[in-house]
Amino acid sequence: MNHSTNKQKIFLVDDHPLVREWLTNLINQQPDLAVCGEAETGPAALSALSQQRVQLVVADLNLANSSGIELIKDLKQLHPDLPVLVLSMHDESLYAERVFRAGARGYVNKRETAQKVIEAVRRVLDGKLYISEKAAEILAARSMRGQSASRSLIELLSDRELEVFDKLGQGQGTRQIAEDFHVSVKTIQEYCARIKEKLHLNNATELLREAVRWRDSRDSG
Q1: Which residues constitute the domain of residue 60?
Q2: How many degrees, rounded to 5, is the angle at CA 36 between CA 31 and CA 41?
Q3: pLDDT tens-digit profile of 68-78?
Q4: Residues 56, 113 within the same domain
């Protein structure tokens, strides 16, 4: 990794080694940018970032045994001047607003070209916000119509409730989710109860079926 002092230092947080390798190669090819570290979990990222100064964090939302959105919130609290760019496969129309609310400065989809990723990196490093035209149009339309009129039931879920719902859709059980989030099984069960109430679902079977259906529709989209 290039640690040249005249380059802006970027820290990567992603639980896929191939993605980190691709990003490292892409960023290090730029004359003014360098990857100076990487992590695959939120806690590991926070530990590393407490020991070094960087100019930008590029983070996924799905992390090994941790939450990308919680990482953004933690970074906002611990390093308020450190910008975060989210690079994720998640649906922008649902997640972009959440990550900006958590404190991120940009959101780029992993389906975008390498050129777009670098464009997003540079824009956030320049102190600006980055969001795709598609996501910007969706958020603008939602704002014009008013929140209550445009929000789907899924959008009523809190950040953590949505993460639990997503993991249920991946086939994870409550005990595994509890271990990932370092909370009790009872806490996850309470989240599930709130999700069922908000989505008007009657029982755990309906909750699981809806989570899998929602996850499949996102993946196919």
Answers
A1: 8-141
A2: 135
A3: 999 999 999 99
A4: yes
Token digits of residue 117: 């990723």
Q: Which two tokens stand for residue 19?
A: 């993605």
Q: Which residues pair with 34 in a beta bridge?
A: 9
Contact between 117 and 108 (Cβ < 8 Å) = yes
pLDDT for the residue numbered 117? 95
Give the integer Cα–Cα distance in Å for 50 and 169. Answer: 34
Mind giving me the DSSP string for 42-93?
HHHHHHHHTSS--SEEEE-SEETTEEHHHHHHHHHHH-TT--EEEEESS-HH
Question: Do residues 98 and 71 lie in contact, with contact meaning Cβ atoms separated by under 8 Å?
Answer: no
Give the pLDDT confidence of 155-191 residue by residue, as tens digits.
889 888 998 998 999 899 999 999 888 899 999 999 9
CATH code at position 201: 1.10.10.10
